[in-house]
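Researcher: Hi, I'm a grad student and pretty new to this. My advisor asked me to get structures for two proteins we've been looking at. I'm not sure of the right format, so I'll just paste the first sequence and hope you can take it from there.
Model: That works fine. Here's the first sequence with its structure tokens right after it:
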Amino acid sequence: MDQFVLNIIHRPEMVPEYAEKVTGQGKTEDIGRKALLTESLDIFKVQQECAHKNGLKTTIQMTYASLFNQEAVELAKEHHAVYGDEIALSLLGLPCEQFRKKYKTKDFCIWMFSMEDKKAIVRDVFSKFYEIFGFYPESTGSYYMDADLINFIKAEYPMVKCAVATCWEEGPKAYHTCNNSWYTFMDGGPWAPWIPSKQNTHAPAANEEEDSGIVAIPHLSRDLMACYDGNGSNFGTHPQNVLRGMIYDTQTWEFPYLYNLIDQYRYQAKFNDGYAYNMMFVGPGWMNKMGRWEASYELLLKSYEDGCAYYGKLKKEGKLLDMTMGEFADFYRKKKTYTQPECALWKDILYGSKKQIFWYCDPFMRACVNMDQGGAIVDLRPYAAKLEWPVGIGTKHVQDASYPFLIQEKYRAGYFTHYAGEGTIYSAKVCCGGEEVDLCLCRTKAHVSQEGGDRILTLDPVEIVFSAVRVSLQTVITFAEGSSAIKIERKILSISDPSADVRINEYMVGCYGTTEYSEDMSSLVLGVDAGSMDGKEREESKEIAYAYRCREEAADGAEAVWCKLPPIHTRVSLRCEGREKRGYVKEGYAFSPMFTLGYTGKLGEKEDFVTWLSLERED
């Protein structure tokens, strides 16, 4: 039977984000205001009650502020004894009078502090926790935890085995929908639990040597389509996310989207060896008595009660396992291997578009395949590079913790782009008689299967209509476990005129970055490794040092085409098996600062054209 695992995490955040501005309207800021502290603790009690009355255990992540509140401490001890809740420690909720007096800052994101301050704060918070409870926590967390922070915590407090370590796709899209004021960027990480590497939190460990020593879980379980296309804070299994997104019946106060989202996660067990995961991570600021997100307190409360009731119903039916964070870390270590990927075949459950995407994540890459664009790869992160990316004050990345992309259709255009230039995408063009059709224009569907360590995405055939010829073409994309390559097979199933000269152009348009804005491409190098074709002399290998000059190189029978990207220590390459194959590379220009790798060849009826996209670390 499939296993659907749930973590519910509450934190008695005595000074909830945003709440001081609400409870203290018209008054000078005072984060020690008694009304604020009392309301916060009352809401925490309500949240705990919602879980417990539905038979669900929680992880109580004590905040720094709550460690100075005797009632919050006693509640945590009581709920641990009575309900089996875990007492953990959050690195959120730092702001309080004691913290501000000691550190003289309004910063509250632990990963943004200098490394010196991170260490001091961690030691301070952990020692205060030990002073109160007489033991150190097994679990911790924040919106994001950088690799240096995780490595330090594990070295100083080896009992820590689980942490909330990133928000999924919390980057420029979230920044823009927060009126350009939410200066935290953490795109490019896993959406489901993983073991982070010592080098980079986002990139899963490939082996024991890379293992940071903890199991990481995401901050909320997001809608893997709506969140990617838009602001993730509106589309998650946190009930108040659904209210912020206005995705509920305003007349009846019912939440069918929330239940569909939970069920969509349950469905992913089919692609992950019978296991699926969900989490809610909730602070009291979301249930303010004065209301939030154009919703009254009564609606806020009902959404949370209904959400917990749905999880409780699933548990009673034997369809859900509720665990604390520490319990989950032990479960995950027994359930998963380092190279075992996380897969998600996701459909639109919000807009009725019938759109379908596939997500794949392992220690070497994160990729997204869009069936609405004929199986194009629309997001690609080179985890194989295990890119060291220090974050915080004193580093090159004070706010930007994102893992860089090679392809990202939302920030670098994708297929549907301006009249000039190109966007990042991996796709193919089918050509015949001077006509050309990009598979990005061919909407299809897919199903997932597994053969040994291979996860196989088989797309439904698409029909391509030229003036004189009809072609039925099928795509199969294979992700081999333990490999850093994606295998893409194109096959013509039938053709109305078998004598027609049908050609295929398999291509990748790429760049690198973490935002919409172009990086300096001048250090990149493009190359064509020479090969040979029957009846032709072997051509020499060729290189282009990127200089924005629109140059191209190609070779018949090329063994590989590639690009080296020194700023992110990555080498991306294509190799190919196909009739009359010809490999090529293209340099971009200032208005379209991309690079292109590709292969062309001939494709007849019942023939295959196979390409491998590979990622490696390049020092």
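Researcher: Oh nice, that was easy. Here's the second one.
Model: And its structure:
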Amino acid sequence: MANFFLDNKDFLYHLSHPLMKKIVELRERGFEDKDKYDYAPVDYEDAIENYKQVLTILGEICGDVIAVNAESVDHEGPKVVNDRVVYARGTQENHEALAKAGLYGISLPRRYGGLNCPLTCFVMSNEMVSRADVGFENIWGLQDCAETLNEFASEDIKQEYLTKVCYEAATCAMDLTEPDAGSDLQAVMLKAHWDEDKQTWLLNGVKRFITNGDGEISLVLARSEEGTTDARGLSMFVYDKKHLATKVRRIENKMGIKGSPTCELVFTDAPAKLVGDRKMGLIKYVMALMNAARLGIGAQSTGLSEAAYREALKYANERKQFGKPIIEFPAVYEMLANMRAKVHASRAMLYETTRFVEIYKTYEAIAKERKLEPEERAEMKFYSKLADAFTPLLKLMSSEYCNQVAYDAIQIHGGSGYMKDYPVERLYRDARITNIYEGTSQLQVVAAIRHVTTGTYLNKMREYEVGEYCPDVSHLQKLQSSMIDKYSAAVETVTSKNDNEFIDFHARRMVEMAGHIILGYLLMIQAAENDDYRLSAEIYVKNSVAEIEKIYTFIINSDLADMDPFKMIKEA
């Protein structure tokens, strides 16, 4: 029997992080639920044990059910029958196993039937499910929609829909994109109008590329203000599948994540309820939903990287060439060591970002219950800024590393990896979407660049720089400090030109520099825990030195005229 929680010691490390005590105490509001629910924890230690038990159950289902079904789901996939989605057999088995275990609503409040686990635990669940089958994680992870309802919807809507997620294991979908509105969501034109006779909002139009589009509960971005064409005319609505007012026109035939039905939907007078305030659908609610989704893709990327690395490691130990296992060849063990360092780095960034998001989000929730103390408000602002800076950086770095690790896993398998006989072929196809959906890598750079130009990343680097590290990695501190200096000089070189196009031209280079340095520090922090982290820190930082030097040399010798050869592509 496999258990994807118990076989990964990194989870225990992050559950014992110093900030977890603050997170748990804020989450549990002083453990006020202990007298209302017999499964609520009585103190911090009890809470952590509860979380471990939940994650252990989930880890077992991931190892013994979801991972076992992954190959058959990839071959079978979902289909459309009478305008509805029918899951692959394995997908339905996965869903039923999780529902039977009572794991849906893992992070929702207990008053709606949830387990009230911290966001950290939900992210861990996403990572484990992704390691088992990244396509199924798209169904499981869409509980983010329920979190959005919990944050912004009225109490009546919460009572109706959050209880459905917790007690009935209702699946969710976020219906945002359209044929002519992909990344540019302000171009959404699906119409919402208020029907006086029926006393409800009605939705009409088409949505495309909707993950799990036939889910029981859908958050729908629609144009509620007639005559508008921008973001100010958009509102958020919740639609219940029971109305049968949508049709699944088709399921996209994708390269990977086959088990996840990506649908084109037609809404015809579909009754829906307004979430929050009119005109705030994109400006406020979708932005919150997308940030949560990007955290989810960080978990997805890390889980898939873990799966690909483990498959490559297993194969390298078993496959013999020239009389010995191929792991004994330097060309192979170097690849594996670099893969492991990227997995560790992605995971370190994932949970650092999660902690930042969790603290500020919890303070926001508390602020709706009572007035925050001045120090609490300052802390909320502090962590909100860090979360805003780290979320796009996480999504960028982890998804790019996911693709690299999956690529190298194929390479280690050689010709066998190109065949469908081994899981890495599926993992390679599944990985490709991670740096595309929920905002491409290019869009993550757009979101992150202001934290380069305003100094958010540099300030955090300087904070890490003066931290205390174990003696085994003290020699890396000089390398890190040198990279910070080069990063600072590169940013100054670019910004001193006072040309926005020049900043955009070098944006990805500067953001990636920041990513390499920050991830290096996070691994150095973990190095005190065990030799695995120490070795990953050693490998990652030394590889980063080469990457930083390459980028620094390009930027420091760059001028406005250097953009001209690239601009010529527009005229080709």
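Researcher: Is there anything I should tell my advisor about the second?
Model: You could mention this: The mean pLDDT is 96.
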